[in-house]
Amino acid sequence: MNTWLQNTDNRTKAGYALVALGVGFLLMQWLNVDLWGGMWPLLVAAPGALFVYLANRGGLNNVGMIFPGVILLGTGAILFYQNLTGHWASWAYAWSLYPALIGFGLQFQGTHRDNDSEVRTGREMIKWGVIAFVGLWLFFELMIFGNLGNFAWLLLIIGGFILLQQRHSSEKSKNDL
User: Fold this and answer.
1) 65/52 Cα distance (integer angstroms)
2) Cβ–Cβ contacts within 10 Å for residue 119, how many?
3) Is the Cβ–Cβ distance between 82 and 88 less than 8 Å?
4) Per-10-residue mean pLDDT for the chain, 177 residues long?
5) Cα angle 70, 98, 144; round to 5
6) Is 34 helix (H, G, I), strand (E, B) or coil?
7) Residues 6+ apart with CB under 8 A from 5
8) What is the pLDDT, as a whole number, of residue 177?
9) Contact, 111 vs 119, CB < 8 A?
10) For residue 131, which of 150, 168, 103 has the smallest C-alpha distance?
């Protein structure tokens, strides 16, 4: 059984990458450079990206690495959004994205293993995870956090779009006569 790190070329690349990262972190510390101030969530997402890479490139033996990959990448993205906006209360509903992330992993794994059942289950998990997220987002942002003004603008935009579409189709049907 040949693992990714048993390959000499891969070990050499990993060694160089770790040494370069170590030198970079030491330089940042010695020069008192705060490069990561707002970018610290990348420290969560980076291992996820490595897992996704290994799942994609490691063959059938490594396809299961997609699960820690999507969880870490998703968590890093959520933390990046929250750190950028300061909207930490969004954890109240952001957790509902995890079933969708796992569904993505199942769909990926099922596709690589030619397992239609896993692909279908993954699609359903993605669908219901996104529906849960949107529902909880609306509930918390409107009812709990009181961001009704943003919702009013959303309703105006959607309503205006529907009216424009309706007007366009009724004008088109008049021209067809």
Assistant:
1) 7
2) 18
3) yes
4) 62 79 78 72 92 88 93 95 88 95 96 95 95 88 74 73 78 66
5) 140
6) coil
7) 11, 14
8) 63
9) yes
10) 103
CA–CA–CA angle 160, 165, 166 (5° rounding): 95
DSSP 141: I
Helices (H), the chain: 8-30, 42-57, 66-85, 91-94, 98-112, 116-138, 148-176
Burial letters 50-74, b for 16+ CB under 10 A, else e: bbbebbeeeeeebbbbbbbbbbbbb
What is the Cα–Cα distance from 31 to 105, expressed in whole angstroms? 41
Structure tokens at 149: 């003004």
Q: How far apart (Å, rounded) are the C-alpha atoms in residues 123 and 109?
A: 12
Q: Measuring CA to CA, which residue among 92, 174, 99 is closest to residue 137?
A: 92
Q: Do 66 and 106 form a contact (C-beta atoms < 8 A)?
A: no
Residue holding tokens 């396809």?
A: 63
Q: Which two tokens stand for residue 53?
A: 């890479």
Number of other CB atoms surrounding residue 95 within 10 Å: 13
Residue 33, phi-psi category: left (phi > 0), alpha (psi -120 to 50), beta (remainder): beta
